[in-house]
Structures are given as structure tokens and as C-alpha cells.
Amino acid sequence: MTRTIFITGASSGFGKACTEKFAANGDRLILLARRKDRLESLAEDLKKNHRTESLILAADVREQATITEQIDQLPAEWSQIDVLINNAGLALGRDFFEEANLSDWNTMIDTNVKGLLYVAQAVAKKMSAQKNGHILNIGSIAGKEVYEKGNVYCATKFAVDAISKAMRIDLLRHGIKVTAIHPGAAETEFSLVRFKGDSDRAKQVYKGFKPLSGEDIAAVAFYCAGLPAHVCINDLTLTCTQQGSSTHFWKE
Ligand code: NDP
Ligand code: 8X3
């Protein structure tokens, strides 16, 4: 059966890898991110390679009114959402607490916490009416253990952990599954964004070990979303084999 999968942060990294994984399975996709050009060329590729039908939502998850309106007013044929991969997010900067940039803090809180909530609530309203659905929130190992200079990024991911637990309880009565996936270090555009385009510094993060890839996270999300209706993975942390905690790596 063709499912409708709503993926935020579909233009890069985990989100983009999820589009490929679900499209290859015959699912149809709602693709949300700010970079419309990337979403358009992705939708073309998916159509060509898998005959995937996609709906593009070029939007910023921080814009509450736009997000709520766009999801409330989805065309009728896209209104039944089976799975939400609530993934859009970012880290900005890696600084000691007293030296960090307040604007970076605001952007991370607005995106990773408030944006995730806006999308989740608008979709949960639809799923409640349907009496089924599955929401996968992308947290982080940074939401399980804080690390030096991780301060507010870690706090936003601790929030994703708490929000996921709360959603699971409140949405129980509607038969909606909530899964929190917490990846460790994965090589995507994440570090390039965190270090504001400094590609040398971004590459350095993954030196000496083989990190997770977007495809690894997509495989896990696909597995979680494919379990029988009565089975829900609540919470899952995955790392590459050379990572043992937020801060412990076995490097070559
Ligand atoms: P990428 O930078 O590769 O992808 C981030 C995605 O989020 C992009 O598609 C981007 O699209 C989208 N996004 C960012 N801000 C907004 C916004 N305001 N509105 C809409 N979309 C937005 O990083 P990853 O794929 O690695 O990250 C995905 C998620 O995984 C994030 O929540 C991140 O915190 C988390 N994570 C990442 C880990 C890693 O090591 N890579 C590990 C653990 C968790 P666009 O710019 O086009 O809007
Ligand atoms: C991204 C992974 O722990 O390197 O969430 O910040 S981490």
C-alpha cells in the first residue's frame, strides 16, 4: 500500500536520504525545507527514478503561521499523512557558554524546538482525526548527554527527547505512534552549517573514524516506520561503531 510520508529537512542529509529510501519502497512524499530549488530537483529525480509523486512545501519551520496554514490547507489528496519524519534542524557554533552568540541560540531554539513543535502539532491534528499515524522526531545523542561547548544545541535536543515522551503519552488515545531517533555523529551538511561554511573545520569533525551516513539513519527510520500497527519503537540511540558516547570515539 502506498503511504504518504511527510519529511522535514528533505533538502539535505538525513531528510534527503529518507526521501530516497521511502520513494524506493513506492511511498509518496511531502517534502519540506527552505531551499525550493533543491526540493524541485529532488522531486524530479525521485519521479524519474521511482515514479514518486511529491508535494513540495518550501517553508521555514520557524514561521508558525505559515507552517500551520500550509499543513492545515494541504490539498485533500495529500491530507492523509501516514508518517511524519520531523527532522529539520541545525547546530550553530560550538562555543563556551559565556562566549556563545545569542542569535545562534535563538535560531537553534526556534528551529529545533519551536519549529519541530509547530510541524508536529499541525500533523498530529490530522492524525488524531484519522485515528492513526506515526511521528518520528529526530533528536540526537546530544539530547542524551551534554558535551563541552554543546550547551544550547544539546538543550534543544534534550527538549526533543522530552517532547517525544510527552507526545507519546498525549497521543496514545488516538492510536498515534511516536518514535524518537537519536543519532550520534553523522557526516551530512550538519557540521558545515554548524561552522558556518568552514569546510576544513567541518571535515575535521569526522577525521579518524567512520561516521554514520544519512543512509544509515534513513534505514533505521524506514525500519521503525514499517513495523506492524501494534508495535512502536519509542526511543532509539544509534552511533557508528567507533563512537561510545557523546564524547568517546575510537580514532585511527
Ligand atoms: P543537514 O544540514 O544535512 O540537513 C538539515 C536539514 O534541515 C536541511 O534539509 C535544511 O534545509 C533543514 N532545515 C534547517 N533549518 C530549517 C528551517 N528553519 N526550516 C526548514 N528546514 C530547515 O543536517 P542533518 O541531516 O545531519 O540534520 C538533520 C537533523 O538531524 C537535525 O535535526 C540535526 O540536529 C539532527 N542530527 C544530526 C546529526 C549529525 O551528526 N549530522 C546527529 C544527530 C542529530 P534548508 O536549509 O533547505 O531549509
Ligand atoms: C549532532 C551530533 O553530538 O556531534 O546532533 O552534536 S553531535
Q: Helix tally?
A: 8
- Characterize the main sheet: 7 strands, parallel
Compute the gyration radius: what is it? Answer: 17 Å
The strand order across the widest sheet is: 3-2-1-4-5-6-7
Say which molecules are bound, naming each kind only once: NADPH dihydro-nicotinamide-adenine-dinucleotide phosphate, 2-hydroxyethylsulfonic acid
The CATH homologous superfamily of the domain at 68-238 is termed NAD(P)-binding Rossmann-like Domain
Tertiary shape: globular
CATH class of the domain at 68-238: Alpha Beta
Question: What can you tell me about this protein's structure?
Answer:
- This protein has 252 residues and is an alpha/beta fold.
- It has a domain of 171 residues: Rossmann fold, CATH 3.40.50.
- The protein is 43% helix and 15% strand.
- A 7-stranded parallel beta sheet has the order 3-2-1-4-5-6-7, with helices on both faces.
- Helix 1 crosses helix 8 and helix 4 packs parallel to helix 5.
- The mean pLDDT is 98.
- The site of NADPH dihydro-nicotinamide-adenine-dinucleotide phosphate (NDP) has 29 residues, from helix 1, helix 4 and helix 6.
- 2-hydroxyethylsulfonic acid (8X3) binds next to loops.
Primary descriptors:
single chain; 252 residues; alpha/beta; Rossmann fold; 7-stranded parallel β-sheet; 8 helices; 43% helix; 15% strand; globular; binds NADPH dihydro-nicotinamide-adenine-dinucleotide phosphate; binds 2-hydroxyethylsulfonic acid
